[in-house]
Predict the 3D structure of the following.
Amino acid sequence: MAEGLYKAEEEMMLGIVSPMDFLLGILTFYSIYLMLSISLNLEYGYAGIPNFGKVMFFAGGAFTIGAFVTRFVGHIIGLNLSNYYIRNVILATEVDKYFSSHPHLAISIFLLTLMMSALIGAILGYIASYPAIRLKADYLGITLIASGEVLRIIAKNYKPLVCGSLGVAVPNPFVFIDMPLRGVVQCLVMLGIAIGCWYFVEILTRSPFGRVLRAVREDELATAAFGRDVVKIKMKALVIGSAISGLAGGLYAYYIGVVHPDDFAPLWTFTIWVMVIIGGMGNNFGSAIGALAYTVVERLTMYYKDYIPLPFNVVYLGYIAFAIVLILMLMYRPAGLMPEKPIMTINFEAIRKRIYSRMAKKTSSNSHR
């Protein structure tokens, strides 16, 4: 018995019963937050678009997963989809059982629906940008805030989408993997996708398109005078950022296992803004640092909420802490933890010449031998 108590104490770290689960939770949520922060940084940090409707594109990706997966797979395997509004949890469980014995189908559906989530996010971004992008900054922000609420209200009141106020269950495409390895695999997949999105945005902002985005942000009139279509450039930035947000929404739906319209309140948008402002706008590394800082504080608050005696709900402690940090950052370090730096475009021509010169040296040395 003493050995068992010693082992239990050894497994606990700083009051955390399962350090491995805690770490996986941080990395998984960090993957989602990283994608959201890097997409907002592309839109506002580089293009100067004040996207205060960010949650709409994130929710669009999640709603795509909630509305499509169980229905599509259920139709393939011959499930009775009647009364889906009430029976969606039972049907999702049946799909899980089928996924457990058909891993190839599970992975195919996972990849297909993630692409659909990104596509829906991009379409929503285009629809939102078409009337709004021609507005100036203040009016554009107000329009996007309203757009972000429209989709949530539609989803909550239109039952065929995600079962209205009841929400909809989402099958787990990794159910064929035994626990605890399942959580590790899912976390690594999500982290890999997030890092891929970060790298894509980093390369994009270092390209000529990234320099044009910064030119639009600094002076739209001067950019237009050089023959650039400012409206089209802004629309491209918003569509790309919205696609990444939709992809993040799809991963979030798969991880949580349920999609509910009320989970996508406007607070999501301002949370993402906090990450970008703290990390540093116009710096992709800063967005990654801001997302990591927020994730760690949020997860720690959730784990230690029962140990902190406060006269109010301790869940709001994280919001209070970040509000104070945000005010201090805007007062003393408005550029963020990692301020924007000049973009160094990769010189592929110099790299090619260096590779050829090294190959020539090796060839000449081998010929002398």
Residues 103-132 form the longest helix (30 residues). Residues 1-12 have pLDDT under 50 and may be disordered. The beta strands are 168-169, 258-259.
